[in-house]
Specification:
about 280 residues, alpha/beta, Rossmann fold, 2 domains, 7-stranded mixed β-sheet, 7 strands, about 15% strand, binds S-adenosylmethionine
């Protein structure tokens, strides 16, 4: 189960008690215990992934971004996939296209968590200013530290909960705006072009939460279909083949590390404002 190298590392750096705890958790796992993203087992796998990656995103469009282990266990963090670089890999072709071809003056990340997208975009769009809205105080502290260690703090503004009036004000400045929105259903209130007319001119990537607000993807489509070109990007289950080839970890941990713990049937909308050149996005269906 635990590889020889991992065992050696455990032996060197952990106290006897801590090592025993991990080995007990490993045995429980072997015996079929159930684990989720907040479990002790997930934290153990996260610790091993941290060692393996050196706390830097291993692959994908944000490869090289530095992480801090405090982000492990943050609300909804999907820590392991982020470090592996497989997180939301359905979006990689789009993110690659955005980082190479689009001079956004302002990137607004609503529901920034610990900053995977806010800091990722700040790193790969060095001309852009980034505003990160995050309602959770603990996540905001980690986001601030991650911005520092990645050298993007001077271009990143961290704000608390996003409201329609706050978003309208944030979009008042001239220039192209990219919105990246993942707010567990609050997209219903926030992505409303009647309340926030500036949205009609912004390019918007939104994760939709129909399992929380049934029918929300249909509502959002209707709101934006006359002003935006909308591409639906479905979420796909992860396969062991998605594992980054440059990283060695026992197979038994890979499934846990890759999982994003998503309910089935989720999707994103990439909504490109019609006033701009059409962006062809290739993605795996
Ligand atoms: C699923 S997490 C998104 C994490 C992030 N997008 C990522 O991929 O790492 C959703 C986040 O949205 C935040 N959130 C929910 N409603 C919000 C609001 N109105 N303004 C700002 N953040 C909000 C939650 O606190 C939570 O951290």
């Amino acid at each position: 189960m635990l590889g020889t190298v991992t065992r050696k590392v455990l032996k060197t750096i952990l106290s006897d008690t801590a090592r025993q705890r991990i080995l007990t958790v490993e045995r429980v796992h072997r015996e079929g215990g159930l684990f989720d993203a907040d479990s002790i087992f997930y934290r153990c796998v996260g610790t091993v992934v941290t060692w393996g990656t050196g706390s830097r995103v291993r692959s994908g469009p944000f490869a090289g971004m530095r992480y801090i282990q405090h982000a492990l266990g943050v609300h909804s963090s999907a820590y392991c996939p982020k470090l592996l670089g497989t997180y939301e890999q359905e979006l990689h072709p789009l993110v690659e296209a955005l980082r190479t071809g689009h001079p956004y003056v302002h990137v607004i990340n609503i529901g920034a968590g610990e900053g995977y997208y806010a800091i990722g975009f700040a790193r790969c769009l060095p001309q852009s200013w980034v505003t990160a809205y995050e309602a959770d105080a603990e996540s905001r502290v980690i986001l601030g530290r991650m911005a520092e260690i990645n050298g993007v703090a001077p271009r990143l503004t961290i704000r608390e909960s996003c409201t329609p009036s706050g978003l309208q004000a944030a979009m008042a400045q001239p220039g192209k705006t990219l919105i990246v929105c993942d707010v567990e259903g609050a997209e219903q209130e926030l992505l409303d072009p009647v309340a926030i007319p500036a949205l009609t001119r912004a390019d918007i990537l939104v994760e939709l939460h129909d399992f929380l607000i049934p029918g929300i993807s249909g509502v959002i489509r209707k709101r934006f279909e006359n002003t935006h070109q909308i591409t639906e990007i479905p979420a796909l289950p992860r396969q062991l083949a998605d594992w980054p080839s440059s990283l060695s970890l026992p197979k038994v941990y890979r499934r846990t590390a890759l999982s994003e713990y998503r309910p089935g049937g989720m999707c994103w909308f990439w909504m490109k404002a019609a006033g701009n050149a059409v962006l062809a996005v290739a993605h795996a269906d």
